[in-house]
Write a sequence for this structure.
């Protein structure tokens, strides 16, 4: 489902120069896919030159202020679990018999957050950790379906968002060509020439899974959401030739 | 049954954590002869400090039968930082949807248990646990380093992982880096091979972790 979203967004996102522009694009698009809000919290981010957490969300500024003034970050189970954990966290499984937790989420609802929520923890090579959350007002059944069908895409979107924050806020565009390995470039080159995964595997005499792996890693290194975007970006950067 | 213990919660599970480190020392130091760091009866390394997700196999009578740990490949991990020579040329696995499994170990008594199935119960539980966790987290693959014997076991169970790179000697055995597909099909094959009929993840673990 997010495939279509990724295809629409990809070309626009590549042109992004400021974080607000990129986050605005992503967040407004996400809402058209059954998601009500999207939020990101990053800590110890590299290259940004500050130690304060980086925060961005579509929540109303009233909620953000209220959350900050009430020191909810100290009790928010999303933050407590997410910053040390690995598994995606569904907000419905918190212990709502705890009055503090009930209060945070009760008030969140009054300030317009959806009643369903999901948080994906992100880890980087260094000390950086981040949380990417989406929430929604979908009924339980639809929410369960959405999670099942889109968890993979949400992982990719979460990590993409994280990389975008570091890239745009850090003001350093990576030297993409140097990041890519020979095999990754070869797979991109054949994809750009319109070859399928199978054809590429035959040409390079490696398995189809290996081709998929190289393309996925290239996608990740190029800060892209999907293969189509990665190939287009590699061509635009002159890393591979278009045909 | 598989109990999930995030590294940050280790203090709440002293019995499981102690048994895990002891089984690991016995497996990797004593039996496989890997150059691993030991601390008295424990094998423990710097990756245990990174809050991995531990999968612990709990048998009847609460016996702790084996364990493994998962780490995302976007962060520090063993294949990238300890065994890069197992990967071909300049490959460095780093993906939001690939995690790494390491320190897969089974208590000797549990491994020796006779069974009519292709996979013994503990091995089957740990492998099914990886796939169940992977499906929850939206992963496409799990990457791991293992030895030739384990590769044969997987192949026999029709759960062959795809080898990447060339095998290299690690301690007494050959080490292989392999990609393990995360899919319902893989889960079914594993369950069949191990005679497992229901999900292995402990319900209480999932609730405690608020896993999606």
């Amino acid at each position: 489902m997010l495939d279509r979203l990724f295809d629409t967004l990809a070309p626009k996102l590549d042109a992004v120069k400021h974080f607000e522009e990129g986050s605005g694009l992503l967040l407004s698009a996400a809402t058209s896919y059954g998601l009500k809000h999207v939020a990101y919290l990053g800590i110890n981010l590299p290259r940004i030159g500050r130690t304060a957490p980086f925060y961005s969300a579509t929540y109303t500024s009233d909620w953000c202020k209220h959350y900050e003034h009430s020191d909810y970050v100290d009790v928010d189970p999303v933050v407590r679990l997410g910053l040390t954990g690995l598994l995606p966290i569904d907000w419905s499984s918190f212990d709502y018999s705890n009055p503090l937790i009930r209060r945070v989420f009760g008030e969140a609802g009054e300030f317009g957050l959806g009643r369903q929520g999901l948080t994906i923890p992100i880890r980087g090579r260094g000390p950086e950790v981040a949380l990417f959350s989406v929430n929604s007002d979908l009924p339980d059944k639809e929410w369960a379906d959405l999670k099942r069908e889109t968890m993979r895409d949400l992982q990719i979107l979460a990590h993409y968002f994280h990389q975008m924050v570091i890239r745009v806020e850090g003001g350093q565009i990576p030297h993409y060509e140097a990041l890519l390995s020979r095999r990754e470039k070869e797979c991109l080159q054949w994809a750009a020439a319109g070859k399928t995964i199978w054809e590429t595997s035959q040409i390079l005499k490696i398995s189809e899974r290996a081709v998929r792996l190289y393309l996925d890693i290239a996608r990740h290194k190029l800060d892209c959401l999907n293969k189509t975007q990665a190939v287009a970006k590699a061509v635009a950067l002159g890393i591979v030739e278009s045909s | 049954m598989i109990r999930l213990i995030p590294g940050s919660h280790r203090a709440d599970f002293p019995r499981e954590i102690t048994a895990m480190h002891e089984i690991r020392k016995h497996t990797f130091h004593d039996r496989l002869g890997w150059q691993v760091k030991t601390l008295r009866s424990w094998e423990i390394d710097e990756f245990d400090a990174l809050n991995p997700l531990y999968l612990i196999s709990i048998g009847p009578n609460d016996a702790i039968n084996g364990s493994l740990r998962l780490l995302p490949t976007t962060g520090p991990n063993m294949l990238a930082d300890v065994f890069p020579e197992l990967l071909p040329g300049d490959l460095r696995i780093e993906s939001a949807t690939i995690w790494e499994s390491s320190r897969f170990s089974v208590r000797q008594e549990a491994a020796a248990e006779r069974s009519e199935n292709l996979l013994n119960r503990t091995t089957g539980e740990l492998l099914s646990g990886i796939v169940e966790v992977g499906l929850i987290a939206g992963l496409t693959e799990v990457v791991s380093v293992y030895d030739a014997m384990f590769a044969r076991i997987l192949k026999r169970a029709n759960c062959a992982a795809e080898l990447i790179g060339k095998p290299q000697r690690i301690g007494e055995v050959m080490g292989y880096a392999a990609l393990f597909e995360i899919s319902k099909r893989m889960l079914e094959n594993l369950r069949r091979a191990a005679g497992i009929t229901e999900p292995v993840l402990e319900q209480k673990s999932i609730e405690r972790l608020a896993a999606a």
